[in-house]
Amino acid sequence: DQRDTAMATYTCILGFPVCGIWPIGYDGTDINSLCRSNSGSLLVTADDFGLVNLFRYPCCNPTAEWSSFRGHSAHVTKVRFLKDDRSIISLGGRDQSIIQWSIE
User: Fold this and answer.
1) What does the alpha-carbon distance between residue 39 and residue 34 come to, in Å, rounded to a whole number?
2) HEC states along 64-89?
3) Mind listing the pLDDT tens digit for each residue in 5-62?
4) How many CB atoms lie within 10 A of CB 59?
5) CA gyration radius for the chain?
6) Is the pTM here over 0.90, yes or no?
7) Is 34 helix (H, G, I), strand (E, B) or coil?
């Protein structure tokens, strides 16, 4: 039984602990990537609107609050926390850029 197994990482855009990342109006393809912080307290997503979004983890409430950051000119394809959880790397799609974000 794997029901309550603690995972080292969480990068799946679907599941109960991340069901609150889907704002009203988003369809099932608008979020491209997700990453839980190594400490397990934060969650970052990349979407089709050029945004990097930061949530608290777990994010089970459909009305969860989040912060959005714009740096890419098109969709964001991937996001990951760095080992120390003090920075996030995001990869742009059409703009082909790599951005490092600091968490303060």
Assistant:
1) 15
2) CCCEEEECCCCCEEEEEECCCCCEEE
3) 888 899 999 999 999 999 888 998 999 999 999 999 999 999 999 999 999 999 999 8
4) 22
5) 13
6) yes
7) strand
Beta strands in the chain (DSSP E): 31-36, 42-47, 51-56, 67-70, 76-81, 87-92, 98-102
In tens, the pLDDT along 61-83 reads 989 999 999 999 999 999 999 99
Rounded distance between C-alpha atoms, residue 95 and residue 51, angstroms: 13
Distances (CA, A) of 36 to 31, 53, 103: 14, 12, 14
Paired with 31 in beta bridges are 47
**Cα–Cα distance measured from residue 99 to residue 32, given in angstroms and rounded to the nearest whole number:** 16
d(CA 39, CA 83): 10
> Residue 8's CB: how many other CB atoms inside 10 A?
6
